[in-house]
Write a structure and sequence with these properties.
Blueprint: H1 7-26, H2 31-40, H3 53-64, H4 69-88, H5 99-108, H6 110-114, H7 122-141, H8 145-161, H9 165-174, H10 183-205, H11 209-217, H12 229-238, H13 244-253, H14 259-278, H15 293-306, H16 308-333, H17 347-358, E1 363-366, H18 371-379, E2 383-386, H19 395-398, E3 410-414, E4 422-425, E5 431-437, E6 447-450, E7 462-469, E8 475-476, E9 480-487, E10 493-499, E11 502-503, E12 510-511, E13 515-522, E14 533-540, E15 552-553
Parallel strand pairs: 1-2, 1-3
Antiparallel strand pairs: 3-5, 4-5, 6-7, 7-13, 8-12, 9-10, 9-14, 11-13, 14-15
Helix pairs in contact: 1-4, 2-3, 2-18, 3-4, 4-7, 5-16, 7-8, 8-10, 9-14, 13-15, 14-15, 15-16, 17-18
């Protein structure tokens, strides 16, 4: 199959691979990449924010290279694979006469371009969506047991890439309801479920923490038309750049003449409709709609091949996109060319500045799953993100990194400090202070719940607080303080009020290891008007109150 690739396309893709590898090597990591590198230090069937595919890519890359390329190499490979599969998805024989427009148009799509070297969950999502569509295209022509198995493996790979890959599968199935009575389709489903079972088990073992966070725990904000809905439409334009008028015209002109084209249309319109509706509830990030770049590319390129005027204008606008993207890509490495400060600028500088002052002492960063892994990546030293009640849970909440800094001298760095024993500057101009703690102890894994059902704010009712200690040692109650956090309708903590719960067993001086201790308490009266949620929080050894329970809704 790949032997049929035109020589010019092979040369162009080879050149693109070389460019992406060089870009990956010379560009400093962005914070999300550092976070996924941190994932890869402990390969698992799941992680707090995402399924494990992105960590696997980083791990494989590290077998071949060190440094930034050791994070990004597989992204460079998958990017070329995406272009090859897109070429194979085009049936029009005229395509061999328009190889340059194919390549330039593909390179001009902003996020497909960026994910040619950045390693993010959307990188494998794009590749496996293309592979899934190619397999599905052959499957609907002539379903076989072999294609069913491959299709099932690709569905699993999609779901291992990112959770909203479910939408890809859903809209393709919706476009062809007859799949519900197709035995070959059911074989694919069974294969996919079997392959995905390890992740289901991981979710179960971790109390579905990822699902709970994405569905009910994630903070939001009040609806703003400009930021939410208008921003969503801006994203639809941003993923295409200056080619957008002709690409969306191609979408409008494309008719569902066959099952595969129907799938492309359902996938595009389905994603647009789903995230348009979602935009009335939350801000839609640009990468969430990246999937529509794939069906849009296929439909627009087919439209280009049959419409000279569209081909001329898309090609021209794509060249402009490419020039802008090329300048920005150089700017990722050479800061003066980039119009604003970006995450790839200066990370080595602030990391080395901090390390030069503290040596090999571990650093505990308050509320930063971004800075903790970046520091660890560029120094090789221990770091930890201590998440407090005003922040969010992340991978540091559920893994064992906390234990690596316990009972040690650490630098505790926090934006909440107005002064400290040490000061360092980040490249964005902010100053951060740190203080040394000779014997650091935190117990952020203590889990709290309220035994009784709570559906309203009743400050007169005595409640039962249950605290589970998952640690291998007892935890002294003298080290702990308790509080109730009250949240607004958007799940943002607005007020934290200390409480003094009384142990049911009045002789209890410790939270026993692997055991639950019961306390009685009453909800404190909040100053805020009608809080919507509450959560229980624990402060250990004078640290800022942590995240020790789920959000509990108040009516």
């Amino acid at each position: 199959m790949f032997r049929k690739l035109p020589k010019l396309l092979v040369i162009l893709l080879g050149s693109l691979l070389a460019i992406n590898v060089l870009q990956a090597y010379f560009t400093e990591l962005i914070y999300d990449e550092a976070y996924y590198w941190y994932y890869a230090q402990n390969i698992s069937w799941g992680y707090f924010d995402h399924p494990p595919m992105v960590a696997l890519l980083v791990k494989i890359s590290s077998f071949f290279f060190d440094g930034e390329l050791g994070v990004r190499f597989m992204s460079c490979i998958l990017s070329i694979g995406t272009f090859i599969i897109l070429w194979l998805l085009i049936d029009n024989p005229k395509k061999k006469d328009y190889i340059a427009p194919f390549f330039v148009f593909g390179f001009s799509m902003t996020l497909i371009n960026a994910y040619g070297f950045f390693t993010l969950p959307d990188t494998p999502l794009v590749f496996f969506t293309c592979a899934f569509l190619l397999c599905y295209k052959n499957f609907i022509k002539n379903p076989t047991y072999g294609l069913s198995i491959i299709l099932g493996l690709l569905i699993a790979a999609l779901m291992y890439s990112k959770y909203h890959a479910f939408l890809v599968i859903f809209f393709v199935i919706l476009s062809n309801i007859k799949l519900a009575v197709n035995k070959y389709a059911w074989i694919a489903v069974v294969v996919a479920l079997l392959c995905y079972t390890p992740h289901f088990i991981w979710l179960y073992d971790h109390d579905f923490v990822s699902i709970k966070y994405h569905i009910s725990e994630r903070p939001n904000g009040a609806y703003q038309f400009e930021k939410y809905t208008l921003g969503f439409f801006v994203n639809l334009l941003a993923i295409l750049g200056f080619t957008f008028p002709w690409v969306y015209k191609a979408l409008y002109k494309t008719k569902a003449t066959d099952l595969f084209t129907k799938a492309l249309l359902y996938l595009t319109y389905g994603f647009i409709l789903f995230f348009f509706i979602s935009s009335f509830n939350r801000r839609i990030q640009t990468q969430w709609v990246i999937i529509i770049s794939i069906p849009l590319f296929i439909m627009a390129y087919n439209y280009m091949l049959n419409n000279e005027n569209a081909r001329k204008w898309i090609y021209r606008m794509a060249i402009i996109n490419c020039i802008i993207l090329a300048v920005l890509r150089v700017g990722l490495i050479y800061k003066p060319l980039f119009p604003i400060y970006y995450e790839t600028h200066g990370n080595k500088l602030w990391v080395n500045n901090l390390k030069s002052q503290i040596g090999d002492i571990p650093v505990v960063f308050e509320n930063s799953y971004r800075y903790a892994p970046m520091y660890a990546f560029y120094t090789g030293n221990k770091s930890f993100s201590l998440n407090n009640i005003f922040y969010r849970q992340n991978q540091y909440t559920i893994d064992s990194t906390e234990s690596s800094v316990q009972n040690q001298k650490v630098l505790y760095a926090s934006k909440y400090f107005k002064k400290g024993e040490l000061k360092y500057n980040r490249i964005n101009g902010t100053s951060v202070y740190g203080n040394y703690i000779d014997n650091f102890k935190s117990y952020r894994k203590l889990r709290c719940s309220i035994k009784e059902d709570i559906d309203s704010l009743n400050t007169n009712t005595q409640l039962t607080l249950q605290v589970y200690n998952p640690y291998k040692e007892d935890v002294s109650l003298r080290e702990l303080k308790f509080a109730i956090g009250y949240l607004d309708p958007y799940k943002k903590v607005k007020e934290v009020i200390p409480i003094l719960p009384m142990a049911v067993n009045k002789e209890s001086l410790f939270l026993k290891t692997k055991d639950t201790t019961n306390f009685t308490f009453k909800l404190p009266v909040p100053k805020m008007d009608k809080p919507s949620y509450l959560k229980i929080s624990i402060s250990e050894n004078g640290l800022i109150y942590g995240i020790n329970s789920t959000n509990m809704k108040l009516n």
